[in-house]
TrEMBL record:
The lineage of its organism: Bacteria, Bacillati, Bacillota, Bacilli, Bacillales. Pfam families: Fur_reg_FbpB (PF13040). It comes from the Bacteria. This is FbpB family small basic protein.
């Protein structure tokens, strides 16, 4: 069940980061996108 309290932006970022660190597949997708961005600029 989701809590109804209002979270600050900082808290939302922390929560999002915690969830992503637990999701290896999502982390791999993000790393791949970042790599593609860097190779396009080079």
């Amino acid at each position: 069940m989701r809590k109804n309290r209002h979270l600050s932006f900082k808290d939302l970022v922390k929560e999002n980061k915690r969830q992503l660190l637990g999701d290896q597949e999502a982390m791999e997708r993000i790393e791949k996108k970042l790599e593609e961005k860097h190779t396009k600029r080079a």
